[in-house]
Amino acid sequence: MLFDVLLAQLLAQAGALPAPLPAPKPASACPPDMVLVEGTHHENVQRICTSYRGGHCYRFFPGLFAVEPRATPVRACMDRHEWPNRAGALPVVMLRFVEAEKECAAAGKRLCTEFEWELACEGPSALPFPYGYAQDAAACNVGKPYRGISERRLASDDPAVRAAETQRLWQGEPSGSYPACVSPYGVMDLVGNVEEWVATSRPEWPHRSSLKGGYWSKPWAGCRGTNESHGPMFRFYEIGFRCCKDAGPPT
């Protein structure tokens, strides 16, 4: 043993020992275009509203909330941007829930769940809006004037007719156009721009498909509130989605 120690010292002094290899970097839990959403989701959050108008709350008492069961642990990777998950790209709309599922599956992902989406939007402090406690009309794309739609044209069997009506109604913005519209986890445009398909988490909803986040003409949109009215075959001019996947093991 003493001989081995002396030999190592002599070799080191002579420069014969190779330089130590750098420590390997820990593997990231998520791909570069996704962010890790990890924490506890509470099914019900109660807050004190301090500015209520038109049937909606626009401001909540900061820092004060109560949570109720059920509590669900969440650990998932979520697309940073709305599909196609590229900064500066227009979000894709007019896809059915089942079509959005296929797009995510083709990318090795899945649709986000309702609980994953809510936690990603609220952060660990259960914020009512991704950026804080009071609605900020300039933070996200939520203040565009409503344009009347033609249900007949949107439901047409002719793709060109549907596309023309969608284009007439379109008021979405490229992903990332609103830098302040970012959640505590770093997810962009969860509120406003386009409504997003999610996989239903609450058993009382009638369909396995639900919608979150409102769209460009819904100024009261926040992190809570689920549109549970539409089944998997529904599609609409302001509905998009983003993908999730299970996160890698903790490093």
Automatic annotation (TrEMBL):
Q: Which residues cross the membrane?
A: none
Single GO term (MF): formylglycine-generating oxidase activity
Q: What is this protein called?
A: Sulfatase-modifying factor enzyme-like domain-containing protein
Which organism does this sequence originate in? Answer: Sorangium cellulosum (Polyangium cellulosum)
State the InterPro entries in the record: CTDL_fold (IPR016187), Sulfatase_Mod_Factor_Kinase (IPR051043), SUMF_dom (IPR005532), SUMF_sf (IPR042095)
- What sequence ranges are listed for the domain Sulfatase-modifying factor enzyme-like? 72-244
Q: Which Gene3D superfamilies match?
A: paralog of FGE (formylglycine-generating enzyme)
Annotated Pfam families: FGE-sulfatase
